[in-house]
Amino acid sequence: MTDRELDAAGIGDPALRAAYRHCRSLNARHGRTYFLATRLLPVEHRPAVHALYGFARWADDIVDSLGPAADPGCRAAALTELGRSLEEGLRGGHGREPVVYALADTARRYGIRHELFRDFMSAMRADLTVTGYDTYADLRGYMHGSAAVIGLQMLPVLGTVVPREEAAPYAAALGVAFQLSNFLRDVGEDLDRGRVYLPADLLAGHGVDRELLRWSRDTGRDEPRITAALREFEALTRGVYRAAVPGIGMLDPVSRPCIRTACVLYGGILDAVAQDGYAVLHRRAVVPRRRRATVAADGLVRAVAVRLRAGRRSRRSAAPPRPSGPAHGRSYAPAEREVV
After folding, report:
1. Measured over all CA atoms, what is the biggest interatomic distance in the chain, rounded to whole angstroms?
2. Where is region (Disordered) located (predicted)?
3. Among 17, 97, 145, 317, whose Cα sits 20 to 30 Å from the Cα of 63?
């Protein structure tokens, strides 16, 4: 399947193919939800999505994989080196790191704005020193680089049926919604890394602070005030999803099943957290495998239906024009716009 994707995308250089394969393996290993949704895209678009995810995953691992006890200077140096490699890759189309090589090629093929990658790297650098956010506005400032730009990077790959700038706010919002879902699911794990992404003023509104979160994490005991704060954060996140979802209809029809599936699966994290009693400080909530399979199957049906319709339109456009007029007893109305 990897060769089929690379062939369809017109990626022939052996070194570049190896770089894309590396990104695909990162997506398959770490981004289970993201990878599952990516399989619903046309094969020629998948390598670009793997490249975007692979680079983001690589940078995130530099920040997080060694844990809070790791030498901050070592992580900062590794992130600086990745940033330097990124700039060289964007300028010259190559990269010493496979993730940079594939990303630079994807940026060139799809005309992705370079500042989106620079904003992402700024957010990664913030994670080395910033351990919390006073307000939701402060958190949104961070998420512009860590999440919104991911949606904006994806937009040229997915394609749109409206001017791209019209769809951009929705793509950015969906990236933010996905990350907010992860923040809620990962409260305990992030706390162990020394970070709290839930805004301090939201927590304080329920009488919660970092110390109370730490107490609950360490003792395994529930606390009604924490549950109330988590429930409010869930409601906030659902509001972002509602604002983002209209943008799915602005995408190229062949891309909509993928993004709709990702939206349902990431939104399912919120359902899983609620069903588990908001016990995110004690264990990670997981979307049941059966639910994931059902959503993926529905996405596959939608994707196949879109491609069949596209194939029929292509065959009709290649056929000789049909005669029309009163002699045939009917007229032909314009086709309705598809909603998938």
Report:
1. 83
2. 312-340
3. 17
